[in-house]
Fold this sequence. Notes:
The protein is built from 10 helices and 12 strands. Helix content is 40%, strand content 22%. By secondary structure, it is of the alpha/beta class. The strands form 3 sheets. A 5-stranded parallel β-sheet has the order 9-8-10-11-12, with helices on both faces. A 4-stranded mixed β-sheet has the order 4-5-7-6, sandwiched between helices. The chain has a 3-stranded antiparallel β-sheet with strand order 1-2-3, covered by helices on one side.
Amino acid sequence: MKNKNGFVDLGFAKLDTDRARRTGFSEVVFCQGKADVHLEKIFTTLYEKNGEVLGTRASVEQFEIVREKFPDAEYREIPRLIKIQSTEKKSREKIGKIVVVSAGTADVAVAEEAAECAEFWGGNVERVYDVGVSGIHRLLSKIEILNKANVVIAVAGMEGALASVVGGLVCVPVIAVPTSVGYGANLGGISTLLSMLNSCANGISVVNIDNGFGAAYQATMINRLACKAT
């Protein structure tokens, strides 16, 4: 039953059907840990309201449940995303420029979560992967791409130095995403997070460990503002 305050109460969940009007983004489903019957009902309700649904951290088994109800649903295996979107929305011209940079191939799953989410929300995304600081010439060879961005998402594990290097090369906001990639003293990404928070480069903001989704959300907001200003 729909509540006058802008949400649908399913009993086990209260879906924020007014979120797109307030924020410009429909509610996104964090799939991990959800019961199958709940997941199906959540996707159905959000699709009926918004005409599209994005689900993060989804398993293949969860995708199969969703696809039974929505044959046009798409699954991105590496970032574990479920996308349901109309042909019209998928075919719309992407706006602006968001560049997603990753240090190593082990970081690609998080980088792809960022890139795919930003594309779902209408951003023109360019990927620059495997350009970590251990071979910094690889990053420098892509400087022209970086300089065309409205915002850069820098994804890295280990010591997290990539974000600082990118921050010192570009004149746009850099969103740093620490990943849990690394050996013992990486502490599951905590050392990377602290390194990024302590960056000496200006213009850097930091999201949570492995949070490609959060980086994409923030980058999309910046990209939309940049497009409005031009």
